[in-house]
Design a protein that fits this description.
Distance between the termini of chain B: 23 Å
Structural class of chain B: alpha+beta
Strand content of chain B: 35-45%
Oligomer: heterodimer
Order of helices and strands of chain B: EHEEEEHEEEHEEH
Mean pLDDT of chain B: 94
Strand order of the largest sheet of chain B: 1-6-8-2
Number of helices of chain B: 4
Largest sheet of chain A: 5 strands, mixed
Largest interface: A-B, 16 and 30 residues
Radius of gyration of chain A: 12 Å
Structural class of chain A: alpha+beta
Order of helices and strands of chain A: EHEHHEEE
Number of strands of chain A: 5
Helix content of chain B: 25-40%
Number of helices of chain A: 3
Radius of gyration of chain B: 16 Å
Strand content of chain A: 15-25%
Protein backbone atom coordinates (compact mmCIF):
# COMPACT_ATOMS: atom_id res chain seq x y z
CA UNK A 1 0.00 0.00 0.00
CA UNK A 2 1.39 3.39 -1.00
CA UNK A 3 1.06 5.93 1.79
CA UNK A 4 1.92 9.61 1.30
CA UNK A 5 2.31 12.50 3.74
CA UNK A 6 2.03 16.26 3.40
CA UNK A 7 2.99 19.46 5.25
CA UNK A 8 3.99 19.03 8.93
CA UNK A 9 3.24 15.29 8.82
CA UNK A 10 5.83 14.90 6.05
CA UNK A 11 8.32 16.98 8.06
CA UNK A 12 7.78 15.10 11.33
CA UNK A 13 8.22 11.76 9.55
CA UNK A 14 10.99 13.06 7.32
CA UNK A 15 9.49 11.25 4.32
CA UNK A 16 7.08 12.08 1.52
CA UNK A 17 5.84 8.55 0.89
CA UNK A 18 6.42 4.90 1.64
CA UNK A 19 5.23 1.44 0.66
CA UNK A 20 3.65 -0.30 3.67
CA UNK A 21 2.68 -3.92 4.32
CA UNK A 22 -0.38 -3.49 6.50
CA UNK A 23 -1.43 -6.27 8.87
CA UNK A 24 -4.83 -7.84 8.06
CA UNK A 25 -6.28 -6.35 11.26
CA UNK A 26 -5.88 -2.84 9.81
CA UNK A 27 -9.17 -2.19 8.04
CA UNK A 28 -9.86 1.54 8.25
CA UNK A 29 -8.06 4.90 7.96
CA UNK A 30 -8.28 5.21 11.75
CA UNK A 31 -6.71 1.75 12.15
CA UNK A 32 -3.75 2.77 9.97
CA UNK A 33 -3.11 5.85 12.10
CA UNK A 34 -3.18 3.78 15.31
CA UNK A 35 -0.89 1.18 13.73
CA UNK A 36 1.52 3.84 12.40
CA UNK A 37 1.83 5.30 15.92
CA UNK A 38 3.47 2.07 17.05
CA UNK A 39 6.18 2.23 14.38
CA UNK A 40 8.55 4.61 16.17
CA UNK A 41 8.98 7.90 17.94
CA UNK A 42 8.57 10.08 14.85
CA UNK A 43 5.28 8.31 13.99
CA UNK A 44 4.02 8.63 17.56
CA UNK A 45 4.80 12.35 17.37
CA UNK A 46 3.25 12.84 13.89
CA UNK A 47 0.05 10.96 14.72
CA UNK A 48 -0.10 12.20 18.31
CA UNK A 49 -3.58 13.72 17.72
CA UNK A 50 -5.29 11.68 14.97
CA UNK A 51 -8.47 13.78 15.31
CA UNK A 52 -6.84 16.72 13.53
CA UNK A 53 -5.39 14.63 10.70
CA UNK A 54 -7.24 14.40 7.39
CA UNK A 55 -7.01 11.53 4.92
CA UNK A 56 -7.68 10.72 1.29
CA UNK A 57 -8.07 7.38 -0.48
CA UNK A 58 -7.06 7.52 -4.14
CA UNK A 59 -7.24 11.34 -4.05
CA UNK A 60 -10.74 11.55 -2.52
CA UNK A 61 -11.40 12.90 1.00
CA UNK A 62 -12.47 10.21 3.46
CA UNK A 63 -13.23 10.01 7.18
CA UNK A 64 -11.37 7.99 9.77
CA UNK A 65 -13.95 5.19 9.62
CA UNK A 66 -13.46 4.67 5.85
CA UNK A 67 -12.50 1.11 4.84
CA UNK A 68 -9.20 0.85 3.00
CA UNK A 69 -9.93 -2.37 1.06
CA UNK A 70 -9.17 -1.87 -2.64
CA UNK A 71 -7.27 1.39 -2.11
CA UNK A 72 -4.06 1.93 -4.04
CA UNK A 73 -2.93 5.26 -2.53
CA UNK A 74 -3.63 6.66 0.91
CA UNK A 75 -2.66 10.19 1.92
CA UNK A 76 -2.47 11.80 5.36
CA UNK A 77 -2.32 15.57 5.86
CA UNK A 78 -3.20 18.43 8.21
CA UNK A 79 -6.34 20.58 7.67
CA UNK A 80 -5.96 22.49 4.43
CA UNK A 81 -4.79 26.11 4.33
CA UNK A 82 -4.72 27.05 0.64
CA UNK A 83 -6.27 30.01 -1.13
CA UNK B 1 -15.06 20.48 -18.00
CA UNK B 2 -17.22 23.05 -19.79
CA UNK B 3 -15.76 25.20 -22.58
CA UNK B 4 -13.89 28.13 -21.07
CA UNK B 5 -13.17 26.24 -17.86
CA UNK B 6 -9.59 25.95 -16.69
CA UNK B 7 -8.12 24.76 -13.43
CA UNK B 8 -4.36 25.08 -13.18
CA UNK B 9 -1.52 24.86 -10.68
CA UNK B 10 1.14 27.51 -11.38
CA UNK B 11 4.80 27.40 -10.42
CA UNK B 12 5.43 31.01 -11.48
CA UNK B 13 3.60 34.36 -11.03
CA UNK B 14 0.01 34.55 -12.32
CA UNK B 15 -0.70 37.06 -15.10
CA UNK B 16 -4.06 38.35 -13.85
CA UNK B 17 -4.75 40.50 -16.89
CA UNK B 18 -4.15 37.68 -19.35
CA UNK B 19 -6.25 35.26 -17.27
CA UNK B 20 -9.12 37.77 -16.97
CA UNK B 21 -9.05 38.46 -20.69
CA UNK B 22 -9.20 34.74 -21.52
CA UNK B 23 -12.31 34.34 -19.36
CA UNK B 24 -13.97 37.49 -20.74
CA UNK B 25 -13.49 36.29 -24.30
CA UNK B 26 -14.60 32.68 -23.70
CA UNK B 27 -18.15 33.21 -25.00
CA UNK B 28 -20.08 35.90 -26.88
CA UNK B 29 -22.89 35.68 -24.30
CA UNK B 30 -20.72 36.88 -21.41
CA UNK B 31 -21.96 40.09 -19.84
CA UNK B 32 -20.33 39.83 -16.42
CA UNK B 33 -16.92 38.69 -15.19
CA UNK B 34 -16.05 38.51 -11.50
CA UNK B 35 -12.45 37.98 -10.46
CA UNK B 36 -10.93 37.28 -7.06
CA UNK B 37 -7.22 37.45 -6.25
CA UNK B 38 -5.85 36.12 -2.98
CA UNK B 39 -2.62 38.04 -2.26
CA UNK B 40 0.31 37.12 -0.04
CA UNK B 41 0.31 39.57 2.91
CA UNK B 42 3.53 41.05 4.28
CA UNK B 43 2.25 40.38 7.83
CA UNK B 44 0.91 37.18 9.30
CA UNK B 45 -0.58 37.53 12.83
CA UNK B 46 1.26 40.82 13.31
CA UNK B 47 4.64 39.41 12.29
CA UNK B 48 6.55 40.45 9.23
CA UNK B 49 7.05 37.58 6.77
CA UNK B 50 9.52 37.21 3.92
CA UNK B 51 7.46 34.70 1.93
CA UNK B 52 4.89 31.93 1.95
CA UNK B 53 5.64 28.38 0.85
CA UNK B 54 2.69 26.59 -0.73
CA UNK B 55 2.61 22.81 -0.90
CA UNK B 56 -0.08 20.80 -2.71
CA UNK B 57 -1.20 17.26 -3.45
CA UNK B 58 -0.73 17.00 -7.23
CA UNK B 59 -3.73 15.50 -8.97
CA UNK B 60 -6.05 15.76 -6.01
CA UNK B 61 -5.71 19.56 -5.81
CA UNK B 62 -6.88 20.02 -9.42
CA UNK B 63 -9.58 17.36 -9.00
CA UNK B 64 -11.05 18.99 -5.87
CA UNK B 65 -11.17 22.45 -7.46
CA UNK B 66 -12.73 21.02 -10.63
CA UNK B 67 -15.43 19.25 -8.64
CA UNK B 68 -16.40 22.54 -6.95
CA UNK B 69 -16.35 24.43 -10.25
CA UNK B 70 -18.71 21.74 -11.60
CA UNK B 71 -20.94 22.11 -8.55
CA UNK B 72 -20.99 25.91 -9.08
CA UNK B 73 -21.99 25.32 -12.68
CA UNK B 74 -24.99 23.24 -11.57
CA UNK B 75 -26.15 26.01 -9.22
CA UNK B 76 -25.61 29.08 -11.45
CA UNK B 77 -25.69 29.68 -15.23
CA UNK B 78 -21.95 30.14 -15.75
CA UNK B 79 -20.45 30.68 -19.19
CA UNK B 80 -16.81 30.33 -18.13
CA UNK B 81 -14.68 29.75 -15.04
CA UNK B 82 -10.99 29.75 -14.31
CA UNK B 83 -8.98 28.94 -11.20
CA UNK B 84 -5.20 29.29 -11.00
CA UNK B 85 -3.38 28.42 -7.74
CA UNK B 86 0.29 29.13 -7.12
CA UNK B 87 2.60 26.66 -5.39
CA UNK B 88 6.19 27.01 -4.22
CA UNK B 89 7.69 30.22 -2.75
CA UNK B 90 5.44 33.28 -2.97
CA UNK B 91 6.52 36.75 -1.88
CA UNK B 92 4.32 39.47 -0.34
CA UNK B 93 2.25 41.23 -3.01
CA UNK B 94 2.18 38.19 -5.30
CA UNK B 95 -1.07 36.41 -6.12
CA UNK B 96 -1.60 33.06 -4.39
CA UNK B 97 -4.91 32.19 -6.00
CA UNK B 98 -6.95 33.66 -8.84
CA UNK B 99 -10.62 32.84 -9.51
CA UNK B 100 -12.66 34.21 -12.40
CA UNK B 101 -16.27 33.40 -13.22
CA UNK B 102 -18.32 34.65 -16.15
CA UNK B 103 -22.05 34.73 -16.83
CA UNK B 104 -24.61 36.73 -18.80
CA UNK B 105 -25.57 38.78 -15.71
CA UNK B 106 -23.60 39.63 -12.58
CA UNK B 107 -25.49 37.70 -9.84
CA UNK B 108 -24.35 34.26 -11.01
CA UNK B 109 -20.72 35.31 -11.47
CA UNK B 110 -20.52 36.95 -8.00
CA UNK B 111 -22.12 34.02 -6.20
CA UNK B 112 -20.13 31.34 -8.05
CA UNK B 113 -16.78 33.06 -7.42
CA UNK B 114 -17.49 33.19 -3.69
CA UNK B 115 -18.73 29.61 -3.61
CA UNK B 116 -15.63 28.30 -5.41
CA UNK B 117 -13.28 30.23 -3.09
CA UNK B 118 -15.06 29.10 0.08
CA UNK B 119 -14.74 25.44 -0.90
CA UNK B 120 -11.22 25.82 -2.21
CA UNK B 121 -10.09 27.13 1.20
CA UNK B 122 -11.44 24.16 3.15
CA UNK B 123 -11.22 21.19 0.78
CA UNK B 124 -8.51 21.71 -1.83
CA UNK B 125 -5.28 20.06 -0.58
CA UNK B 126 -2.88 23.01 -0.26
CA UNK B 127 -0.83 23.93 2.80
CA UNK B 128 0.88 27.22 3.67
CA UNK B 129 4.04 27.81 5.60
CA UNK B 130 5.38 31.25 6.50
CA UNK B 131 9.04 32.16 6.16
CA UNK B 132 10.41 35.03 8.22
CA UNK B 133 12.69 35.95 11.10
CA UNK B 134 14.90 32.96 10.35
CA UNK B 135 12.16 30.39 10.89
CA UNK B 136 9.37 28.61 9.06
CA UNK B 137 5.92 28.06 10.59
CA UNK B 138 2.94 26.09 9.23
CA UNK B 139 -0.21 28.18 9.04
CA UNK B 140 -3.14 26.85 11.14
CA UNK B 141 -6.50 26.16 9.52
CA UNK B 142 -9.09 28.84 10.17
CA UNK B 143 -12.47 28.12 11.83
CA UNK B 144 -13.95 31.09 10.00
CA UNK B 145 -13.18 29.41 6.66
CA UNK B 146 -15.00 26.23 7.74
CA UNK B 147 -18.11 28.26 8.54
CA UNK B 148 -17.88 30.16 5.23
CA UNK B 149 -18.00 26.86 3.33
CA UNK B 150 -20.78 25.42 5.51
CA UNK B 151 -23.22 28.21 4.64
CA UNK B 152 -23.47 26.85 1.06
CA UNK B 153 -24.70 23.44 2.21
CA UNK B 154 -28.20 22.79 1.01
Amino acid sequence: MKVIYFAWLRERLDKTEEELELPASVETIGDIMEWLKTRGEEYAHAFDNPKVIRAAIDKTHVRADAKIAGASEIAFFPPMTGG
Amino acid sequence: MMPGETVRIAQSPIDIQAETRAVSEASAGIGAVVTFSGICRADEKGERIAALHLEHYPGMAEQEIESHVNEARKRWPLLAARVVHRVGRIEPGETIVFVATASAHREAAFAAAEFIMDYLKTSAPFWKKTEGGGREVWVDANEKDERAAERWQK
